[in-house]
């Protein structure tokens, strides 16, 4: 934050999510950089959803569903855990969760970065379309289901059916993978992938602490890209 | 007996085809045996099911007087989204254009839909694959679909939309996802969907970040937050359990509910799905209306009915059963020029006929509507096709008004079930109106 940063405080025990979001939506691009400290989120839903300005929102506690949904430009820091669909369909910006995230974290998101300090539950990165997700813990089953583009980096383990029906997204997992989903295979980790992974470490602020070669890469075998009788059992 | 005289040939029976193994069924068995993959096609259920044709209006008589055909006013306008949205939608006619994806339809077709609907003061709807400039630019009122695939979904387009339609299901395939075959994944379609070009694309059947009505309530809250509670939020369901689906949509906070019956069109779905899953439109309307009535929400949460709507009589019947508006897909495409006999020789070359062409997924539509082929697309002039759609919508509206006036109604929404009788016991039971000439409503003991 530079010297011109204005800090505002919003207490969700006193004002509503509607009031908070209406205020944040009124901030237009080019308006002064500002920092919004949100207290007492208490697991409320749709906190800081639909932002479209380069502001920073720090939420002090756990959030409910869809925090930072459809985010553009904003940086949202959650000092707690996040409910279902954190940063769903994000376009750009950064959403960071200090705790764990529930299901469908980063679902369908087109861009920006989602950093999860703890674990993410099932379907992390489902239908992702370009976002970069870094999970410092483990991810649950069906993560990166139908993942189209972007990267999912997992420092821990991945549950069952990782990358089922995956398209062109890239998955990097350091720990074990319970099982791979249909059409998802392990792929060679070349230098370009290590370089890409290193960029993700930077995003998560752990560059230099982890060695990219400890990770395995997974992606699409591209065998289900065309309907074919021999694949019938996989449909 | 003289050995040289043959006995008369025993009379033979005529060749007889099986009703069970009819010619179509056998052709399908042969097709399946040859290819090993299910049949995919466009359009809705082709089998005959109880429909609005099985209902009749009673018109005026001694105890009901009609309105003067061309003199007395018969309103057709409808307001959608009055429950929570700050900016409800006002339409001049109760006939909307259903969601049809860009990808399944060409850009010029989307433009033509926008032009025709706008000329008549009604809305169009996007579809799987996102919002195009052709459609936004030419539609005064545009409903933006929120589908499981979320292809092309972005907050800028949501803000440009006039309403949002959360698609839970479609009548042609309740419980099914989408598919768009490689031939139609042109560079533009691929880019909008973030997919490789030319692949056979599947779209999910379930939303990625919510399951069930309790989650949907939170999802709707999020969409309202993102759009500052301005835009009406519709929930579209395929007709399966319309009573409960309607009630649960109300609970989840919908402003408008769209119920799509099994005759409803699709761009591409398995034939077995189209013909065997879901219930007819006729069977769904009264259940949906009953759910709204039981919750005290009829006319507060608006109901749009679709699936096999073809003319003003269908519109009037849907409204009389309690719908607020209808939506059309297939009929709108036909109005634009789909399946037109002028392309007969080309349909024959594709192994079909004008009127039966349903391989919309293959992208070779001679009429240039269900295609992404730049040459075929040019065949559709969006201005002229838009005009045809506007004409057709005008005719449907006049027809619905004609019936409403005959029943003595000064607004099409004043039509009511009491204006209707049924021709068949099935239709009487489904629509909960008496069998014609009787006062018998099968099953009228409050149970479905
Ligand atoms: C070519 C085509 C594409 C369609 N695409 C979608 C879609 O993307 N999303 C959706 O909810 N319904 C889609 N539908 C279904 C329509 O929205 C609508 O429910 C149906 O067409 C209504 O029935 P009707 O065709 O008998 O009028 C499509 C239908 C057609 C014919």
From TrEMBL, chain A:
InterPro entries for this protein: Glu_synth_asu_C_sf, Glu_synth_lsu_3
Gene3D superfamilies to which the protein is assigned, alphabetical: Glutamate synthase, alpha subunit, C-terminal domain (2.160.20.60)
CDD domains cross-referenced by the UniProt entry: GXGXG
Molecular-function GO term, any one: oxidoreductase activity
SUPFAM superfamilies named among the record's database cross-references: Alpha subunit of glutamate synthase, C-terminal domain (SSF69336)
Superkingdom, natural source: Bacteria
Protein name: Protein glxC
Taxonomic source organism: Hansschlegelia plantiphila
UniProtKB/TrEMBL annotation, chain B:
MF annotations from Gene Ontology: glutamate synthase activity
Record-annotated membrane-spanning stretches: none
One Pfam family linked to the record: Glu_synthase
CDD domains for the chain: GltS_FMN
Keyword terms, alphabetized: Oxidoreductase
Region (Disordered): 118-138
GO BP annotation list: glutamate biosynthetic process
Family assignment from sequence similarity: Belongs to the glutamate synthase family.
Protein name per UniProt: Glutamate synthase large subunit-like protein
Species for this entry: Hansschlegelia plantiphila
Gene name linked to the record: glxD
